[in-house]
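Good morning C.,

I know you're traveling, so I'll keep this short. The sequence:
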Amino acid sequence: MSQSDVNVTSTSTSTMQRHVTHLDFPAFLAAIEQAKHPDYRNRPVIVSSASSTRSVVLSASPEAKREGIYNGMLLKQALRQANGAIVVEPNPELYQRATQYILKRLESFSPFVEPIRFGHIAVDLTGTTRLFGRVKDTAYRIYKDMESSCHLKPSIGIAVNKLVSGIAAHYIQSYAELFDVLAGNEQQFLEPLDVKLLPGIGGAKENVLLEELNIRSIGELSEIPVNKLAIVFGRQAYGLHQAARGVDDSPVRPPATQPEIKEEYTFDDDTNHDEVLYGVAYYLIERGCLRLRQLGKKTNRVRLFCRYSDNQVSSRVLTFAEPLQEEYAIAQKLQQVFEGLFERRTRVRYLSVAFQQLQHSAEQIRLFEPELSINAYKQRQIIQALDRIR
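The tokens, ready to paste straight into the viewer:
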């Protein structure tokens, strides 16, 4: 196995040193399909719905990417480019089951396991050395466990916090399985990297950094004093400066403690095609609603966010008088705000849907229960049937 270290001598502290690992599963959806179907392995696999003319590539295996396929490409275009590719209908339930299975296996190494999004999981291994030995050895055991039990090969970053471990896992995707940023060397590791690798750098913020301040690397950002950053970024300046120095105190949150459910999608090739944008937005809503139902939650508030290729951003918030968990109801309001969300004709790079103000879905008994319309009743019955099939 290829293992990489950034060497530095750690200084002793009065508190226990944190050890956080980040597992990054490349092309997660396609990888799950290849893991489930052995005959798909080493073949170009595309995850996309073939039933719609506006279908887009949601995930492409490495074999498909080598043929020029990328996430967000129209399926009909992808098939012209790689007509021998295997097209698989997206199966959110399968991907959620796979995630749950992975989480259960990871919980044997630590009780603090956080699914950040599909294909990205943080594990806090702080305090596990007496039980499992060196954290680096434990991370390697995790890698081998994922490979043998799930037929998946994640890249794993190790650091003192979620921020640096996540960047490390992304950084090594192309050439190693494991990268250990030793305590005290976080800033040195980050300095030469592209500033866009920092979470939260996007939209107007990224535009200011790149165009007005001519900041390209994380190291260049870290050298600017907080008081000068505050002139441009206000209250966000301190957090931005801390991130550039590799400082992150956020805990690894198990699912039960997460304040929201978030689904997100980054286009390999920026697009402004309405059919593509609507198709991806609906897919994210569908995936999030499935997670709501599995967790026994409902939502009163849904936030849609997009980032354009010129780094401007746009967002819309959908609010509901009654908490819900059905995608058809959210999709109705999506249609109402769709044009406003994507009012600019600039291409879109990133799209996310966040389900907020979560509540337990246990229904309260009402004296006068409102009647569902025939269409809403049928939609709910269809969703329940699909959930049972999944």
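Safe travels,
E.
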